[in-house]
Write a structure and sequence with these properties.
single chain, 143 residues, mainly beta, Immunoglobulin-like, six-stranded mixed β-sheet, 0% helix
């Protein structure tokens, strides 16, 4: 299982996506030893879940994103690059209380052909905070 990488802003703070807005994940493919993958990426899937409940968001469960559905793989001699564009429907609040930020986990799984011609697999997880749209929370005890 891979470690979860918390996405950071350019200032080094945890990256926060606004609820119902687009956001983007950028990364690079690495093999289990930490070396950049320079072989051909063969497949790529995305699962997107709310961290506390593990509920899948926007039907993103093992969705094929290999150069479609918001995913893009750019071959690069120094290692293949990954871009995932998340839509407003991907950045929704699932279970957080009124005014609370919640964490979403994006899990990518891929296969690639190594330099010996063998097919290998990899996984990476990213944590993205989603902040709620401005709402007026009811007073405690009201309802």
């Amino acid at each position: 299982m891979s470690n979860i990488i918390t996405l950071l802003s350019p200032e080094g703070l945890p990256k926060v996506a606004d609820e119902n807005e687009s956001s983007q994940i950028n990364g690079q493919f690495f093999d289990p030893s930490g070396d950049a993958i320079t072989g051909a990426i063969l497949s790529l899937t995305l699962s997107l879940q709310e961290e506390q409940t593990a509920v899948y968001i926007n039907n993103r469960q093992n969705e094929d994103i290999f150069n479609k559905n918001g995913g893009r793989v750019d071959p690069n001699p120094a290692g293949a690059l990954l871009t995932i564009k998340l839509s407003p429907d991907d950045n929704v609040i699932v279970s957080a209380g009124c005014g609370e930020t919640e964490s979403h986990i994006a899990t990518c799984k891929w296969t690639w052909q190594d330099l010996e011609g063998d097919t290998r697999t990899g996984t990476q997880k990213w944590r993205l905070a989603v902040a709620p749209a401005l709402v007026a929370c009811p007073p405690a005890g009201w309802l």
